């Protein structure tokens, strides 16, 4: 396996008195003590790792542990206080301005947590940005950018501005902008954190698919352990600027390096961590206040389902309607399906743990509605839930390959 | 105590400044003469050109422009139409054109100087620390203090008027350019950097477009400040509406003073609303 990124003894200290602060970290003083004594903040201390070509390397840790600092050191948005970082064996800590610009243009692109799309540029112009910077001709870069948007399913929005798109779409544009460059390395700083759980899962799938098709080296930051286990080939866990442990999901779960990691991973027994929210899927609904039986039947045909969830205009959960009942209503010639709604579907809160739902799920003839403040958020389907519960063992097999 | 203070000899600041000014005037007199005559010719040319346009055509053009830049509303268009007709009716058309040229010239020079200075300031905290107090100084000085060096360098007439106006009107453009660029969100700067932008690419493709509406607000203020210098500049012989106000003042002609002053206000409102609408439209 080819090594793509190598990080050697990298330290970043922010603020004044860096040398003094460096001495204090070496003496194992805590971050807050150092801040009090010197006024300097330890961003990253003595980081050492390599990332192989085609690998997804995940960085985890609590807020302030130095994840963003570490990933910004990799493309030198932040310059390290000491240490060396090699990209394809070129030491970027010693690169001159022009060399650095060249490396950023050709080798790596970054995706940001808050999307960081340029508000004054259209979606297409945003996607073109990296190519434009390289001096590519207009026709060529439009072609490439349109291709990237096409792959993200966003080509129809190309002339819109970022603020006209939803958060999920904006993040897909952020990813498309990075991919239009065809970089060898993708740096993703909490790229999916701002997205709601359903879209987030779609994006994870997209990323895994991308990884399977075109081998990119990906460094990915997340707060979410499930996300880390799902997409990460290897995971690094950080605390107070130091990397505590690096390993595959399985290695870390079975062999936590120290007590801190053990507590960090406390709830990792996946059935304990998985909630209804993380396993729910998008419900197919009708609005009983303006959809009649004909619309219901049409939608069932279109979506290939035999049951629709019923809500009112405010998205409040009312019950469900079956295909048989909708057919009957259509025959009876009524315009509203309200009297055909069945209400015997169990409901749960989004935060409910999946393992507490096992009996409900196996007892219920219908799927389960996920409801928050009376509003319908999603639906739990037996097959998906069981798959989610068993996938932890599956993933461990995968990472061992 | 008082005696002790009185014993310190008076510092000869005023004569030092005078010496410095003399040196400047002597050393660069050729250059100043060139600017004086060149500037005067150019501005007279523009004023003559403006006067060549039939007033009614000019008024209609402004009204139509106002109609479109305010988003097809009649308010400003109607105001411009009536206001400009009033000024014409009062026999102040030539004066208006002179004032227009003065404001146009001072504003353009202030913008051409101000935006690059603002950019330099935003890029270097050291430059910011030097320029900021100078701007404070420039803004707290009463406008007519600038008439003194203006006269020393350029004599009297329209060119020293422009010189004094530029100094007085420069600060907002510099400040707002600096502010606008510094306010560009950090993640957008990071995005631009992470794709390998050069400094110039980042400036042109990201920072200036995003700072644009802030910079435009500064330009709007610069234009209004240079307008406010019109009366003061007339003290050293700059022609225009300001001169009418000044001469009415000197002869205590209340009626004439009112008419000339009102004309200035009308002109100021039109200029202000027009530049503001341009800004809104561009957003
Ligand atoms: N530009 C800076 N100047 C000073 N200190 C900084 C700077 N950037 C980060 N830090 C400090 O470095 C430490 C690590 O910050 P970093 O942003 O890398 O954390 P993080 O792990 O990404 O946290 P989060 O999960 O909240 O994003 C923090 O203590 C932070 O205060
Ligand atoms: Mg962060």
UniProtKB/TrEMBL annotation, chain A:
Enzyme's top EC category: translocase
Chain ranges of the CBS domain: 280-336
ABC transporter domain location: 5-265
Domain of life of the organism encoding this protein: Bacteria
Membrane topology, as annotated: Peripheral membrane protein
Keyword ATP-binding: yes
SMART domains per the UniProt record, alphabetical: AAA
Major subcellular site: membrane
E.C. no: 7.6.2.9
Subcellular location field: Cell inner membrane
Family: Belongs to the ABC transporter superfamily.
Protein name: Quaternary amine transport ATP-binding protein
Record lineage: Bacteria, Bacillati, Bacillota, Bacilli, Bacillales
TrEMBL record, chain B:
GO molecular function: amine transmembrane transporter activity; carnitine transmembrane transporter activity
Keywords: Amino-acid transport, Cell membrane, Membrane, Transmembrane, Transmembrane helix, Transport
One protein family per Pfam: BPD_transp_1
Membrane-related topology note: Multi-pass membrane protein
Coiled coil: none
Entry superkingdom: Bacteria
Keyword Transmembrane belongs to the record: yes
InterPro entries: MetI-like, MetI-like_sf
UniProt key word Ribonucleoprotein: no
Family: Belongs to the binding-protein-dependent transport system permease family. CysTW subfamily.
Protein's name in the database: Glycine/betaine ABC transporter
Organism: Lysinibacillus odysseyi 34hs-1 = NBRC 100172
Top-level taxonomy: Bacteria, Bacillati, Bacillota, Bacilli, Bacillales
